[in-house]
Design a protein that fits this description.
Keywords: Coiled coil. The protein has a domain at 1-135: Tetratricopeptide repeat domain (Serine Threonine Protein Phosphatase 5, Tetratricopeptide repeat). Helices cover 81% and strands 0% of the residues. The chain is built from 16 helices and no strands.
Amino acid sequence: MHAKAAEYRGGLAALSVNASLDEVLEQAERHDAAATGPGERAGALLAIAEACRRLGRVDRAERAWRASYRAAREAADRDAMAWALWSGGTLARQRGRYVLAHRLLSRAAAAAETGTDRVARGYALAGLAETGRVQGDFAGTLRLHEQLLAEARADGQPRHIVWALEGIAQIHRHDGDHDVALAMFTEACQIATDGDDQRGRAWALRGIADLTSLRGEVDEALALLAEAEGACRRMRLEAALAYNHKMRGNVLYRAGRYAEAERVYRDTVEEFTSISEPRGEALARLGLVKSRARRGAEPTAVERELGELHAHFTETGLHHAAEMTEAARRDLLP
């Protein structure tokens, strides 16, 4: 069973899920220039949008998914319209625009319901589930994650199986069910390995590293993150790489290596800023504040920064992150 990159469509369908994003962008641009009709353009522009999104070139990604949608609408291709809307919704989530993400992903699911591509429908629903999960709605999205996992297994979609397993594992990890979470991340890692899905494997390794760190196995956790980092760099997965580095900061912080953690978090804030990923940036800032506090930062400054982060998380609808900030305040301040 081999993973495919379902978002690479038409003449780009032969591209591997492990293809470098630079290669994807180059080929997609060539296909766009050579396209003879709106259907071909829709597929090429979708690949451009996805490559640019993952590279952090968000303005171009925004233009590309909208152009893909217009081309798909001109071609009266409901499946292509669904994929373009999915790309736009995923970009909106990445940029911290959660209301817009829900709206676009809901439209993607509706378009897919009237089309013929079950995978497009699955990706749209998965996008809705992930958007709810990152906002902290774990109970509400667990059922949808589990439904999508069952559908992915029935359809033989290994890449989607890996995604669903990782999402469910994240929910169990946040609920404190670490053994269950580790088993699911491990299964996801094995399926990704068997299907040669290096992207899914990198995310699974990050989850395993997190849980390994919670058991006090610091060196093993750092080694897992280093392995995942190599894959992220080879494929130019800028957002995945930044989240990998944020997890490295988490591992070092838990180990009491606060000076190292502070350096990692500071660099990671810059990484997230450069790719316009506000959720990751704010979470890295939280780690940075906590590290500084452990190293003796002025309590009034720590309280001010935590208050600013709490307000940001609350305003943007990141409820779980807001709770994390409150926990940090209780832990770090008298």
